[in-house]
Recover the amino acids of this structure.
């Protein structure tokens, strides 16, 4: 089979708002991204996934779109978008946009018409969203149609006076869900997608793609995710989009869906799938929750790391797709904490664990997505005040924690450990004020460690996390690592991350102590023919019986 460009590519995710400010308003923008294209090219990046850039009231940093056809003034203009695409193409890089099809902003003209009985277009747009009449209890008090819980922590229903109905929002209340059973609505989304394709974009990451269908019987259930996630019909919608819009125009697509079965995995992103080319899934992203914590529950509860769960998730996907589909590998995106603080150590073993994380992920097969700042070992935020946080989700969840009995300090610690904002603080370019991100105070505070952790310093040091990323990404290309065959060794181990990746040109043997403690390890493979390619301690000696120091890891290669 002929290789597709995206199988050989390294993708880099840019969270535009926090990448680089070029016009002195404290907000990252297209101008800033264009300035940094050479940097990305040099790092080894082939394609850039840009977070939503559309006009938006920014309730959810642009995932709440009020005009799909306009570029948010925070980020620039359509001319800047064209310049970005053009500049990227000149450097042989691709641009992927974030395509949000599940919801709009409540300030989108469709919703403004839909919610207002007296609006001239009310009839036309009411059906673009999902409405339900109130229920009443025995005292005649209005009740929500169901007790489903939104992904951001409150109810999924919001009452609308004008029509005496509730509308459904599975994210914030400023993000009403679109009704994919409406043909007219789908036609509008298809036309919009086509319009962006015509601007020259190379592909899309399709947001919240497994939520498009809902259970229209509206049964009760708390949180009720099964009634608005992964329902069979969402596959039909995706197929329709793909057959009518994506495939005929030859754009690459990445879906987003948690919890797929083998059959579904192939349906989403098998080589002969009619949906996506690849899929972002989440089995490895929260492998350290503590289900005994009732004060800050769910993903907010930080517990012990379950390394086996991480490896098993990757192994399951390699197994499910086999040679019938293509995997994505990534540590985290803008919705999870910084990987270094999450699965590594952002204190004493910062450098060692950042390199260990690079070796363990990036010698695996598939297409990698590097998240901005990961390549310099950026950490979680150090915010002390609740209002340092920006994410809409933080505020509903903070109130929940307090209502569950958490103290302010406990709630704040949960936010510093787990909030999405951890991954969204401004990129640390240099040790200048505001980390060289902007000349003015940024929309969100820079993390206080930017004087120790910044790109400028790391470019100058051979031993930096950045240099490791650069070399590792080079190795991927030289040796066709994306196309290799992986074998996990000691998959059950909660301490070690070990695998072989056999490519056309070489075999890689990756060994890592994933813990902050010293561990004994007997290497199971013969060391014959291997040489040491990477190591995160200067004096690692690879022998059969090893004593691995905290986070000690190395990569062996043989022809
Ligand atoms: C998934 C996105 O990654 C996340 O940031 C966003 O809040 C939701 N979808 C809603 O669009």
């Amino acid at each position: 089979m002929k290789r597709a460009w995206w199988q050989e590519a390294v993708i880099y995710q840019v969270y535009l708002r926090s990448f680089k400010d070029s016009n002195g308003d404290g907000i990252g923008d297209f101008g800033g991204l264009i300035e940094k294209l050479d940097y990305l090219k040099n790092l080894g990046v082939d394609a850039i996934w840009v977070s939503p850039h559309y006009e938006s009231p920014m309730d959810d940093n642009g995932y709440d779109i009020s005009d799909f056809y306009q570029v948010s003034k925070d980020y620039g203009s359509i001319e800047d978008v064209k310049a970005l695409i053009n500049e990227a193409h000149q450097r042989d890089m691709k641009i992927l946009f974030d395509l949000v099809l599940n919801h709009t902003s409540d300030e989108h003209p469709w919703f403004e018409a839909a919610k207002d009985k007296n609006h001239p277009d009310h009839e036309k747009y009411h059906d673009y969203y999902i409405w339900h009449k109130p229920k009443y209890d025995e005292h005649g008090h209005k009740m929500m149609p169901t007790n489903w819980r939104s992904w951001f922590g409150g109810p999924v229903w919001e009452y609308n006076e004008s029509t005496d109905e509730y509308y459904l929002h599975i994210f914030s209340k400023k993000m009403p869900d679109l009704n994919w059973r409406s043909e007219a609505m789908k036609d509008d989304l298809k036309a919009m997608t086509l319009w962006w394709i015509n601007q020259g974009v190379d592909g899309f990451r399709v947001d919240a793609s497994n939520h498009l269908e809902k259970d229209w019987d509206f049964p009760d259930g708390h949180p009720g995710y099964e009634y608005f996630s992964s329902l069979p019909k969402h596959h039909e919608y995706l197929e329709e989009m793909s057959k009518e819009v994506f495939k005929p125009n030859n754009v690459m697509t990445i879906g987003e869906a948690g919890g797929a079965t083998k059959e579904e995995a192939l349906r989403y992103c098998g080589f002969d799938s009619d949906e996506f080319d690849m899929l972002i899934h989440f089995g490895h992203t929260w492998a350290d929750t503590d289900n005994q914590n009732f004060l800050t529950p769910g993903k907010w509860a930080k517990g012990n790391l379950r390394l086996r769960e991480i490896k098993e998730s990757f192994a399951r996907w390699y197994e499910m797709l086999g040679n019938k589909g293509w995997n994505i590998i990534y540590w985290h995106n803008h919705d999870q904490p910084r990987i270094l603080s999450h699965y590594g150590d952002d204190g004493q073993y910062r450098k060692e664990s950042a390199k260990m994380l690079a070796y363990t992920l990036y010698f695996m097969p598939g297409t990698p997505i590097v998240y901005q700042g990961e390549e310099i070992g950026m950490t979680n935020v150090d915010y002390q005040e609740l209002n340092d946080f920006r994410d809409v989700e933080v505020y509903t969840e903070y109130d929940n924690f307090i209502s569950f009995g958490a103290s302010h300090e406990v709630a704040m610690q949960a936010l510093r450990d787990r909030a999405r904002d951890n991954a969204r603080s401004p990129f640390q370019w240099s040790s200048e004020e505001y980390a060289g991100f902007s000349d003015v105070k940024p929309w969100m505070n820079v993390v206080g460690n930017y004087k120790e952790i910044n790109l400028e310093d790391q470019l100058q040091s051979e031993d930096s996390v950045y240099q490791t990323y650069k070399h590792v990404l080079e190795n991927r290309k030289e040796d066709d690592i994306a196309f290799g065959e992986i074998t996990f060794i000691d998959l059950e181990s909660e301490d070690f991350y070990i695998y072989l990746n056999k490519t056309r040109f070489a075999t890689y043997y990756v060994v890592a102590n994933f813990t902050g403690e010293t561990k004994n390890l007997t290497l199971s493979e013969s060391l014959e023919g291997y040489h040491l390619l990477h190591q995160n301690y200067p004096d690692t000696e690879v022998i059969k019986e090893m004593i691995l120091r905290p986070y000690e890891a190395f990569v062996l290669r043989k022809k």
About this structure: The mean pLDDT is 98. The first helix runs from residue 30 to 35. The CA atoms of residues 100 and 247 lie 18 Å apart. The two ends are 25 Å apart (CA to CA).
